UniProtKB/TrEMBL annotation:
Source species taxonomy: Eukaryota, Metazoa, Chordata, Craniata, Vertebrata
Protein name according to UniProt: Epithelial membrane protein 2
Membrane-spanning segments: 64-84, 96-118, 138-164
Biological processes per GO annotation: actin filament organization; actin-mediated cell contraction; apoptotic process; bleb assembly; blood vessel endothelial cell migration; cell-matrix adhesion; embryo implantation; positive regulation of cell population proliferation
Protein's membrane topology: Multi-pass membrane protein
Signal peptide range: 1-16
Organism encoding this protein: Carlito syrichta (Philippine tarsier)
Subunit composition and interactions: Interacts with PTK2; regulates PTK2 activation and localization. Interacts with ITGB3; regulates the levels of the heterodimer ITGA5-ITGB3 integrin surface expression. Interacts with P2RX7 (via C-terminus). Interacts with ITGB1; the interaction may be direct or indirect and ITGB1 has a heterodimer form.
Length: 168
């Protein structure tokens, strides 16, 4: 049982780390000589970065991606804290339902963010190149892939909490 508990804790911390990296790192869309995330556009080097401002045509949509990624990270951290509290407070045989619900909400938020970014990628990078740089020749970066991996991890983690019962 102790090994299972250690595995669940490590899995949850890994999910949170993936969410932090995917939210913060500058690699949602990369190409030769540039990288873009949901916060800024960097040309040539990481020193030459421009914040994405309200003059960006789809700024409201990009803000939705930003907000849902931040919310998913916060919810994942809250779920971990609630799991630790429930670990010591729940009676034997009860399930970690509250932790599961919050973790699945985190899963839903990261899925929404990555789906919006996937759907609106052309609008973000091809139609707005006048405002920034010609970023239409790129591809999805590793932070974007990490967001989808974090989606899978948070989903699996949420389902584990739903199934898991507190045992001796």
């Amino acid at each position: 049982m102790l090994v299972l508990l250690a595995f669940i804790i490590i899995f949850h911390i890994t999910s949170a780390a993936l969410l932090f990296v995917a939210t913060i790192d500058n690699a949602w869309w990369v190409g030769e000589g540039f990288s873009v995330d949901v916060w800024r556009v960097c040309i040539n080097t990481t020193m030459n970065c421009t914040e994405i401002s309200q003059s960006f045509e789809d700024y409201a949509t990009l803000q939705a991606v930003q907000a849902t990624m931040i919310l998913s990270t916060i919810l994942c951290c809250i779920a971990f804290l609630i799991f630790v509290l429930q670990l010591f407070r729940l009676k034997q045989g009860e399930r970690f339902v509250l932790t599961s619900i919050i973790q699945l909400m985190s899963c839903l938020c990261v899925m929404i963010a990555a789906s919006i970014y996937t759907d609106r990628r052309k609008d973000f990078h091809e139609t707005n190149r006048i405002h920034y740089s010609p970023t239409s020749g790129g591809a999805f970066g590793y932070a974007f892939v990490l967001a989808w991996v974090a989606f899978a991890f948070t989903f699996i983690s949420g389902m584990m909490y739903l199934i898991l019962r507190k045992r001796k």
